[in-house]
Structure to design on (199 residues):
């Protein structure tokens, strides 16, 4: 491997993990239905933490097992971009398994099943690195079936930061008729009241 590529693989995850930590610090975070996961953690039951590829960025902070002394095992692609993802997530304390639908898929899936059977939580991006986008592949479902563990779908959504309260004049010349929200990232849909536009 050329020196420049090795340097990139060393520096890239450091910068990416720093960016993710900075974003988390800047976001106001709220969640819904945590009780489903907390019940599994209290019962010491492993589960599959599943999400879509395009929501990977902040997904590390959606895992609640750290507070119960648990560690997440994540399936990652063997391609070059998977190497960056793996090294970045390892900086958050996650354990990586390499394999995807294209390369090493069977071996990776078997290892994930073994982790479930041994009582560890596992994570899958369910739509696969090659897509189709938001179409769940069978790997996570088979792992949960053979590992005798439930799957917990996880998602997040972000909204624009509210610049001023309703009825407060804005100093900006730009006025949008679109509703604004007081949080940048949320795990629940906005209420009817918050969704109304105001002038």
């Amino acid at each position: 491997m050329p020196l420049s590529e090795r340097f990139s693989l060393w520096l890239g995850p450091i910068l990416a993990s720093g960016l993710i930590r900075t974003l988390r610090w800047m976001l106001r975070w709220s969640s819904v239905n945590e009780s489903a996961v907390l019940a599994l953690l209290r019962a010491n039951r492993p589960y599959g933490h599943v999400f879509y590829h395009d929501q990977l960025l902040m997904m590390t902070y959606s895992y609640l097992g750290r507070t119960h002394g648990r560690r997440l095992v994540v399936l990652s692609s063997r391609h070059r971009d998977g190497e960056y993802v793996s090294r970045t997530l390892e900086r958050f304390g996650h354990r990586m398994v390499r394999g995807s639908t294209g390369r090493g898929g069977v071996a990776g899936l078997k290892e994930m099943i073994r982790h479930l059977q041994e009582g560890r939580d596992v994570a899958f991006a369910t739509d696969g690195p090659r897509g189709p986008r938001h179409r769940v592949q069978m790997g996570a479902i088979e792992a949960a079936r053979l590992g005798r563990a439930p799957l917990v779908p996880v998602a997040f959504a972000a909204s624009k930061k509210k610049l001023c309260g309703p009825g407060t004049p804005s100093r900006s010349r730009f006025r949008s008729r679109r509703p604004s929200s007081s949080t940048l990232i949320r795990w629940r849909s906005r209420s009817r009241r918050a969704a109304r536009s105001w002038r």
Remarks:
- The first strand starts at residue 48 and ends at 51.
- The radius of gyration is 20 Å.
- Helices lie at 3-26, 34-42, 80-90, 105-117, 138-147, 192-195.
